[in-house]
Design a protein that fits this description.
single chain; 264 residues; alpha/beta; TIM Barrel; 2 domains; 7-stranded mixed β-sheet; 3-stranded parallel β-sheet; 10 strands; disordered N terminus
Length: 264
């Protein structure tokens, strides 16, 4: 009797062990995913990707604000914005042309969930639209900076319209969206530019209040600043390095980065 009891107990232990190991494959995948998130965090390999990018703390989350503007449309002149009038402690990062295609910049935007606005020029981007599609997929917004980057002020209406509307169509065909914001090359424009931008369906003409070459703003940053981050620099720090340098300065000023489209 004792021998039979021992055998039965051993069989029960084996069966229980087998049941414990027979986990549904889908459940097992779910557990592994949860372990990855719990041990590494959803946004970076060490759970704190801001350390990886040289930041002392995560970027503060900006206030939630609704998108405020609709496309201007024919006859409605879009506003020209150099700086956003807001008391929120936010600044806005913008990048022109599309000359630099730094793959680490995609990682930076993804890991820090950085809301950047890319104003693209077709003739500058060239065959590099795939890079900006990757940026769009991780949260960057794609905006209009003309087809060929001419100084628009003084050009006839048909030429200005062709430059602006042509890039609207180019972005639509490449990204499936129509930009809401337009930045005129060199920051030059006239009344004809505003009319053409309205007729091309843009809701605001965006300039900038601070430029940042080498990652250093030309003056101390203030809430509402639209920062133009220089791109296409042939020597010196990469676009990623310049941006992280700028982010450290933004944090030092007690500010964070917000999405420009949410405020215009």
């Amino acid at each position: 009797m004792r021998a039979r009891a021992l055998v039965a107990g051993g069989l029960a232990a084996v069966l229980l062990t087998g049941c414990a190991q027979s986990v549904d494959p889908i459940e097992r995948l779910g557990r592994k995913a949860a372990q990855r998130v719990g041990s590494h965090g959803p946004a970076g390999a060490d759970g704190r990707p801001y350390h990886h990018w040289g930041l002392a703390a995560p970027l503060a989350a900006p206030p939630r604000v609704p998108a405020r503007a609709a496309a201007a449309g024919p006859g409605r002149v879009p506003p020209v914005v150099k700086r956003v009038p807001t008391s929120d402690k936010v600044v806005f990062l913008t990048y022109d042309d599309g000359a630099e295609k730094d793959p680490r910049f995609v990682d930076l935007v993804r890991e820090l969930r950085l809301p950047v606005s890319m104003f693209l020029t077709d003739s500058v981007v060239g065959p590099g639209y795939g890079h900006f599609a990757r940026l769009q997929s991780v949260g960057a917004s794609i905006q209009n900076h003309t087809l060929d980057h001419p100084a628009l002020r003084g050009l006839p209406y048909p030429g200005q319209r062709a430059e602006i509307c042509g890039q609207q169509e180019k972005v639509r065909s490449r990204f499936g969206i129509r930009p809401r914001l337009f930045r005129p090359p060199y920051g030059t424009y006239d009344r004809t530019t505003l009319r053409a931008a309205a007729d091309c369906g843009l809701s605001a003409v965006v300039l900038w209040s601070v430029s940042a070459a080498g990652g250093a703003p030309q003056r101390p940053l203030r809430a509402g600043d639209i920062v133009s981050v220089a791109s296409g620099e042939a020597t010196g720090p990469t676009l990623t390095e310049r941006t992280t340098r700028l982010l450290r300065e933004i944090q030092r000023r007690g500010l964070t980065v917000a999405r420009l489209e949410d405020y215009l």
